[in-house]
């Protein structure tokens, strides 16, 4: 019975070594197909008798070089996809949001202590305006911090535009349905375009509401209607009674869109037109 | 042949792999970080010996792998995800008895052309079909060799009671193997059980 091993082919008639160049051996190894039923584990002495190596040390050494070369190649391949960097970009964006919010809140608290008569009440001061006031009014450490927050906010908006643009490019159909930013967040939660493309609509519908989902599965609480797709205006602007339906229909169409993005890689206008119409229809109260 | 300093499990080898503490020149093997260390600390497991060959499924960043490699002759370390594989390659570069394999543990035919028979099959993968994965890898195990399966009951099914999941896994393994020891890894790891088996001769 022929056994095809990394160092060569072995059968009853003997052994044909495949050389000792790690790169060539790695290349050859990718073509080997083994059936587990007929597989016989390697006896390293066979490799020695074959002339591939002289000692056990050499055997393990050569095998390690081959496997390392193969692994490096596979890692490079898996990082090649355009979605891989987008994943990191959107995670950084969400982290920046967190950090900026925390810093802004802390700076506001600090500012209020230096100005006993200041209050945010009745003034509808969004964080951005508040930051402006602090930068004008504060001195020393606090104004340094405020400047820094402002710079971070600038970085954040530039990154947001980059994420949006990259999402339009990597996942044109999904982005067309829910916008680049939410599409990128879906991608980030799924862990990559291949994974997202294999998800059923029902999973996509509740990505981001894992807490509610598992509490539902464990014991009788109502199921979540939507996860991060809630961030899209179509879902959060929908009237309450039909919100679940909109989320469900949207998620079903997103599942198809993700598959088109992954397997076709380009926008499909016919699909998008139908999908948009169907989702709009779901949002109309009967 | 495990090395203990008092009641602290350690291994002999080049330190600084992941910022581990050292004691009298030995690397401390922390049961809170490594499930295998937890198993030994709780008095279970299979003694690692210098002539052993090990197949390690779910090698991740190579933290536990590095300790196993300190004890045995050769470790075949299988990991599927690219990011941890980057770290594993670095560990394997510095430890000459680790063979790093980037492959899916549930598809043993992918790495069979590299495999010799091993004395110990160690599996720590977060997959729902953990028992099936172990079964598929049994052709690599010598008769009389050991399987240590770290069962993550939460990965099998979050809705089922961990004890039930363990009973199911045990029944599955008993079709091919003799179960020698089963224990929970509390207080070090929750809802994780270690199942030690021997392959019938």
From TrEMBL, chain A:
It holds the Pfam family Nop. It comes from the Archaea. Residues 170-284 form the Nop domain. InterPro entries: Nop56/Nop58, Nop_C, Nop_dom, Nop_dom_sf. PROSITE patterns: NOP (PS51358). Gene3D superfamilies: 1.10.287.4070, Nop domain (1.10.246.90). This is RNA-processing protein. It comes from Methanoculleus methanifontis.
């Amino acid at each position: 019975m022929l056994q095809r091993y990394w160092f060569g082919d072995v059968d009853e008639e003997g052994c044909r070594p495949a050389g000792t160049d790690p790169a060539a051996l790695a290349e050859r190894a990718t073509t080997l197909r083994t059936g587990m039923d007929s597989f016989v584990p390697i006896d390293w002495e066979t490799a020695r008798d074959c002339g591939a190596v002289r000692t056990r040390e050499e055997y393990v050494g050569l095998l390690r070089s081959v496997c390392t070369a193969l692994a490096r190649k596979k890692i490079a391949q898996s990082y090649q996809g355009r979605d891989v960097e987008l994943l990191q970009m959107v995670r950084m964006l969400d982290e920046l949001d967190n950090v900026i919010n925390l810093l802004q809140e802390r700076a506001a608290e600090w500012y209020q202590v230096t100005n006993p008569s200041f209050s945010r009440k009745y003034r509808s001061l969004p964080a951005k305006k508040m930051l402006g006031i602090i930068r004008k009014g504060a001195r020393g450490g606090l104004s340094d911090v405020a400047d820094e927050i402002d710079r971070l906010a600038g970085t954040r908006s530039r990154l947001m535009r980059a994420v949006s643009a990259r999402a339009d490019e990597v996942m044109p159909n999904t982005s067309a349905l829910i916008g680049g930013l939410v599409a990128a967040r879906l991608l980030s939660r799924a862990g990559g375009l291949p994974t997202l493309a294999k998800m059923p609509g029902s999973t996509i519908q509740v990505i981001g509401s894992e807490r509610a989902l598992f509490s539902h599965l464990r014991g009788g609480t109502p199921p979540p209607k939507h996860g991060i797709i809630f961030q899209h205006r179509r879902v959060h602007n929908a009237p309450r009674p039909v919100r679940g339906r909109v989320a469900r229909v949207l998620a079903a169409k997103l599942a198809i869109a993700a598959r088109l993005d992954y397997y076709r890689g380009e926008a499909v206008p016919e699909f998008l037109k139908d999908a948009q119409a169907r989702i709009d229809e779901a949002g109309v109260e009967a | 042949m495990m090395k203990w300093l008092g009641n602290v499990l350690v291994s002999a080898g080049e330190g600084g792999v992941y910022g581990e503490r050292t004691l009298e020149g030995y690397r401390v093997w922390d049961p809170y970080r490594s499930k295998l260390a937890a198993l030994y600390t709780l008095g279970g497991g299979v003694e690692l010996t210098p002539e052993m060959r090990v197949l390690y499924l779910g090698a991740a960043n190579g933290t536990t792998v590095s300790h196993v490699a300190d004890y045995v002759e050769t470790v075949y370390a299988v990991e599927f995800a690219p990011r941890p594989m980057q770290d594993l390659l670095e560990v394997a570069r510095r430890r000459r008895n680790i063979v790093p394999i980037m492959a899916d543990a549930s598809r043993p035919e992918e790495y069979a052309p590299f495999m010799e028979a091993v004395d110990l099959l160690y599996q720590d993968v977060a997959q729902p079909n953990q028992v099936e994965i172990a079964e598929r890898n049994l052709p690599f195990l010598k008769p009389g060799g050991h399987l240590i399966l770290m069962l993550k009951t939460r990965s099998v099914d979050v809705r089922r009671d961990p004890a039930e999941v363990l009973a199911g896994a045990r029944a599955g393994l008993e079709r091919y193997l003799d179960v020698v020891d089963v224990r929970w890894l509390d207080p070090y790891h929750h809802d994780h059980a270690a199942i030690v088996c021997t392959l019938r001769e």
